[in-house]
Design brief:
Two copies of one chain form a homodimer. The first copy, chain A, is α+β, with helices and mostly antiparallel strands and 460 residues long. Chain A folds into four domains: 1-147, 2-Layer Sandwich (Beta Polymerase, domain 2); 149-267, Orthogonal Bundle (Poly(a)-polymerase, middle domain); 274-348 and 391-450, Alpha-Beta Plaits, CATH 3.30.70.590; 352-388, Alpha-Beta Plaits. Helix content of chain A is 43%, strand content 20%. Chain A has 16 helices and 15 strands. Chain A has helices at 4-11, 15-39, 49-53, 75-92, 136-147, 150-166, 180-190, 193-202, 243-258, 274-284, 300-320, 363-372, 394-401, 414-422, 429-432, 440-450; strands at 44-48, 63-69, 98-101, 105-111, 114-122, 208-210, 225-229, 232-236, 287-294, 325-332, 337-344, 352-359, 377-379, 382-388, 424-428. A five-stranded mixed sheet of chain A has the order 1-2-5-4-3, with helices on both faces. In chain A, strand 13 (377-379) and strand 14 (382-388) form a beta hairpin. The two termini of chain A are 15 Å apart. Chains A and B meet through helix 9, strand 12 and strand 13 of A and helix 9, strand 12, helix 12 and strand 13 of B.
Chain lengths: 460, 460
């Protein structure tokens, strides 16, 4: 086994960092509580999340301040007063407040280099009192603080770092991977980083079930991985984990256990250059089309599903047009650009295609069909004819689809639709890879598209 | 209705023709019977078939002489003595004898311009005594002579001519259409040419049943059309009729009844020229590949099924290679050349293609797969990789298949296989249509491929 201690030294926050982030968190809580007191608002700020649990990776101490209101507070009052307190607090410490909506509204700001979220919630003591999705965070934090041994914190950090570096960490839509709380529960279940990997490598398969508190409710869920929430027996903590990311983690765990290398805890060293990428694409003998357009100004968790849905719909339309798609992917910097990649196995087809009509014995419909298609003929006892395709090459089909009229066929979110109709670029990847001004991130995206395993397997 | 009498005048044999063919038939029978008598062979020649029934079309009086042997004759003796008598008879009248095997051996020759077949058979009185397939012909001829009114002979001639001209006449493999005996039974059933057409146009559909002698055995058969043989209740006279030709006749009948035109009784006037054909193919935006090779010296009824089987197998191989086939057809002059046509909807595809491996959870096989394909990746929970296609364009796939090794993948008869491996030509139809020495018949084949309905519908 490799020296995990030396890795821990780099990923565990220093005493200094711990003191700083805790002091600053306390300062923010004090500000909120004092303001609430002054304004006569019945609310209390508490520190939750990874900083409260002591499970953040060095330099990534995101501060989650939850502002608890009594359960009988109205939703409107909770939202107005909670957001108001958060915004004011951000102003006091000289940051810029940004209001956001996940399933629940909150304010966020970058303060002293920390990402700080202020989240209004209800002050609940058990899941029976749950009034909004974020209330559970109180119970989660309490549960981990109470159950996770200090020594196990290190195991969580190793697992979190490993997951980050192999690309399976994060339950947001962009990733569809493992949430931080889920990692902590896995360490509680298996005791150590290594035991989690051993279980994933050897035991996990779709439908695998973990029930720490032995509620016996695992059969309620049909997700790839079931981890019953210790604070809410009716919830699967792994509900948002995709089979893709579960599989990838299993593979990474197997690869690591077989050849444990420190490189699994660091980003892969990419050597991306246009010439290699061009040669890779040339060797595949495919035609790869890049569709690029401006990113709409919507939250990340709304943007990524819209892009994925659009990509999936485009693939389906291509295949229905007899253009076989070898692979597809998408990328966005979430600010300026969205890129959808379609790698075609077939990109040019005949102008005419066969179209089946009624049976010969259905004389009434057969007659209509024959009148409409004078060159129709019989195959077996079925009327057949040739009809002209609207598009006989992949690019013209895409151009036809991405018009105000054509786009009605695409399952695409309204924000993306607007941006696409405003302007989009259609580029052959071969042309892109000789252009001067290609962003490094786009090249990395192409590299990752061609080498999908580079995160999961570290040969050096 | 059009003037059927004027058509009849052209297709009905003249009195002179009738006398000549009957006299010649009697002369041949006399020769055979005299020889048999001299050689002490217990056999008797009789005239059967359309000449005996009086249902042949003017100028097409093929003479069928059956040489009947007593039922207790051995098969060997029947064959040796029967063929011997036939051959000698042909020599006596100065023709060239050719021995043939259908389901049964016979000798054939062109004598005084008539195609004459000498067929050894058993002298049976009912189907219970059937010893070979051809014995039934005796009973068929007797049944028609006994039941077909002289006036109905004209109806048979009209139906036969109509069927010939729309391309549905002939039960041999090449056509898969209606046998002469079947036409006669249809006239017995429906009384007239026109009533046969009305029934086909309005009543027929797959599974339609005719049982002239009311045997009640129609449920024994599952063919598209069931016509119980009046002389053998266990046989469907329409067994070899394909659903294709049944459908085509139905369509031709509908077209004729809607717009009765004399042209249905004559060959369509084809105006075939290379420029039009080229333009037709260009407008389809397809790629049409012609495979041409020498015709093997085998009987027509063996050749056509082999060609069709080969064509079907080639289409399947193309489609399995992701090359979509829009249409296919074949042609042979039965002597020199066989042509197989493949019109491609997709003729160029990517060099690499996706190949699915085991599930991720099957770690043993997954590991093997990954070792074999280091660039493999995971989709959902399935291993995937790219593999190189052997052929990424349609022509190279065909060239690869038509080699001693590759041809093992093709379902092809041994005679065709031999000819193909000896030599074949692969020609793009565009190149063929600028060549100097294209046979007229090949051009007509291409024309018919492009205009499949020209026989069934006569707009002028």
């Amino acid at each position: 086994m490799i020296d995990l201690d030396s890795i821990l030294k780099q990923i565990e926050p220093s005493k200094d960092e711990k003191i700083k982030v805790n002091d600053f968190s306390m300062q923010l809580i004090k500000i909120i509580n004092q303001m609430a007191h002054e304004k006569g608002i019945n609310a209390e700020a508490v520190l939750l999340g990874s900083v409260a649990k002591g499970t953040w990776l060095a330099g990534k101490g995101d501060i989650d301040i939850f502002i608890k209101f009594p359960i009988n507070t109205s939703r409107e009052e909770l939202k107005t007063q909670g957001l108001e307190l958060g915004k004011k607090c951000i102003q006091i410490v000289d940051g810029n407040a940004e209001e956001r909506y996940a399933s629940h509204p909150y304010v966020t700001g970058i303060l002293k280099g920390y990402q700080v979220d202020f989240v209004p919630c209800y002050d609940i003591n058990s899941f029976h009192e749950l009034k909004s999705a974020v209330d559970r965070t109180i119970l989660h934090t309490e549960y981990i603080i109470k159950n996770l041994e200090p020594i196990q914190t290190k195991e969580v950090l190793l697992l979190k770092r490993f997951m980050e570096m192999v690309g399976t960490y994060g339950s947001e839509f962009k990733v569809g991977g493992f949430a931080g709380y889920l990692l902590e529960l896995l360490v509680l279940q298996y005791k150590s980083f290594q035991e989690v990997l051993i279980a994933a490598a050897n035991d996990w398969k779709p439908g695998y079930k973990i029930d720490l508190e032995e509620y016996g409710t695992t059969d309620l869920f049909e997700d790839p991985l079931v981890v019953v929430d210790p604070v809410d027996k009716n919830r699967n903590v792994a509900a948002s984990l995709t089979i893709q990311k579960m599989s990838e983690f299993t593979l990474a765990a197997r690869n690591f256990l077989e050849n444990p290398r420190e490189s699994y805890f660091y980003p892969p060293i990419l050597q991306v250059n246009k010439t290699d990428l061009r040669n890779d694409f040339i060797n595949r003998g495919t035609k790869t089309i890049i569709i690029a357009f401006s990113a709409p100004k919507i939250p990340s968790d709304a943007l990524h599903p819209q892009i994925k849905k659009t990509k999936k719909s485009l693939v389906k339309i291509m295949e229905n047009g007899d253009f076989n798609v070898l692979g597809s992917d998408s990328w966005t910097d979430e600010e300026k650009t969205v890129v959808i990649l379609l790698e075609m196995a077939t990109w040019s087809v005949s102008l005419l295609k066969k179209h089946a009509g009624p049976k010969v014995w259905d004389s009434e419909n057969g007659k209509k069909f024959y009148e409409k298609h004078p060159e129709a003929w019989i195959e077996g006892d079925q009327w057949m004819t040739l009809v002209e395709r609207s598009y006989n090459n992949a690019e013209s089909l895409i151009q036809g689809i991405l018009t105000p009229r054509g786009i009605q066929r695409v399952r695409v979110g309204k924000h993306l639709k607007k941006e696409i109709l405003k302007n989009y670029q259609l580029i052959d990847v071969m042309d892109l890879l000789v252009a001067e001004d290609v962003e490094e991130q786009v090249l990395e995206f192409l590299h990752h598209y061609l080498h999908k395993n580079e995160f999961l397997n570290r040969p050096i």
